[in-house]
Design brief:
The complex is a heterodimer of chains A (238) and B (103).
Chain A: H1 9-12, H2 17-40, H3 45-55, H4 58-69, H5 74-85, H6 87-94, H7 103-112, H8 115-124, H9 129-157, H10 172-175, H11 178-184, H12 188-204, H13 212-217, H14 220-224
Chain B: H1 3-22, H2 27-30, H3 32-55, E1 56-57, E2 60-61, H4 65-78, H5 83-99
Antiparallel strand pairs in B: 1-2
Helix pairs in contact in B: 4-5
The chains are: A mainly alpha (238), B mainly alpha (103).
């Protein structure tokens, strides 16, 4: 193989320590933000830690808390949390068969299939199965570790954080994976997935309970299948 | 979140993930069209999550300071700025816009 045929160095290495460190930082911030919401509806410390560690669904926790805060009972709160978390089933499904893995690893992968980890694995996949596997676990472990540490800090801080919106903590979660979305705009088929997915979710929000719009928006990926799997233009010399 | 609520929440989300992770097998998992769909589907979902987290409150559509923060995050991400920088600037931007009295 000639030197010219090799991919540029930037695409060969895994995520940099800086990227992983900053993701860890972002996850800690999310953990703090979500914990303050959960604590706000009178959740005990051990329940906060158990939920963040084993359920690992921040949006699910927020959905549950918002139903309780609105005076709702446990059953509707659980239904809301399950609807909001339903996308994790599809994210887990999208990781099926990307690399050969024993049963225990498939269970771990399905459990850790968060937006950031799945997005990173898909981004890394052109570099091979092992690159995808490495990217997935790097991001998943940083995400989980930060999440658990952040929840712990959130419990310790208690009311110190106060109104999370005032310091912009409510955008930390979506901002942490907006990168995968804008990267999707570089190709035609994924642009359709990105634009139609967001459009469908917003259009359905006023008419459906929280969670269902995102679940149904996943179907727009079928629409994206009709678009060509190509970039918008030949990459310019840069 | 009560003890029972926490337990059911944990079991429920785990079940959702396992059903998703183990429902495709054999022929389907190797199918080329299925593989392509599984590449595109997360993007639809992630984009939908960002849209909902940015432009909605409950079941209403709203345009507030979050939109400014996420727009800045999108521009920075497009320019390949490291994730942590993106996240911190997005939060600070949102906080600043709120401080200025909007959203």
């Amino acid at each position: 193989m000639t030197a010219a045929a090799q991919p540029p160095a930037e695409t060969v290495k895994g995520k940099s320590a800086l990227d992983l460190g900053t993701l860890l930082f972002a996850s800690i911030a999310i953990g703090i933000a979500v914990t303050s919401i959960l604590s706000g509806v009178g959740t005990s410390g051990w329940a906060v830690m158990a939920a963040c560690t084993f359920a690992y669904s921040g949006t699910g926790e927020v959905a549950y808390a918002s139903v309780i805060a609105a005076g709702g009972a446990m059953t509707p709160a659980l239904v809301a949390a399950m609807l909001v978390s339903s996308r994790f089933g599809l994210l887990a499904m999208s990781m099926t068969g990307r690399w050969k893995a024993p049963l225990w690893e498939r269970i771990v992968v399905a459990h850790l299939a968060s937006e950031v980890a799945v997005a990173a694995a898909i981004e890394a996949e052109p570099r091979g199965e092992q690159a995808a596997r490495r990217a997935f676990f790097e991001l998943a472990l940083c995400n989980t570790a930060g999440w658990i540490i952040g929840s712990g800090i959130g419990l310790a801080l208690g009311d110190v954080v106060g109104n999370t919106g005032r310091i912009g903590l409510d955008v930390v979660f979506p901002a942490s994976f907006v990168g995968a979305v804008v990267n999707g705009l570089r190709r035609k088929d994924s642009t359709v997935a990105v634009v139609a997915g967001a459009g469908a979710a917003l259009a359905l929000t006023p008419v459906l309970p929280p969670g269902l719009p995102v679940l149904l928006a996943a179907a727009t990926s079928l629409l994206a299948m009709a678009a060509p799997a190509a970039t918008w233009r030949k990459p310019a010399v840069s | 979140m009560t003890a029972l609520g926490t337990l059911l929440f944990i079991l429920g989300v785990f079940a959702i993930r396992m059903v998703g992770g183990f429902s495709l097998s054999g022929v389907l998992a190797g199918n080329e069209r299925v593989t392509r769909l599984l590449l595109l589907m997360p993007l639809s979902i992630v984009s939908a999550v960002v849209a909902v987290q940015t432009f909605t409150k409950g079941t209403t559509l709203v345009l507030d300071a979050r939109a400014v923060g996420i727009a800045v995050a999108a521009i920075l991400s497009w320019r390949k700025v490291p994730l942590g920088v993106v996240v911190v600037i997005a939060a600070l931007t949102t906080a600043l816009v709120r401080q200025l009295g909007w959203g």
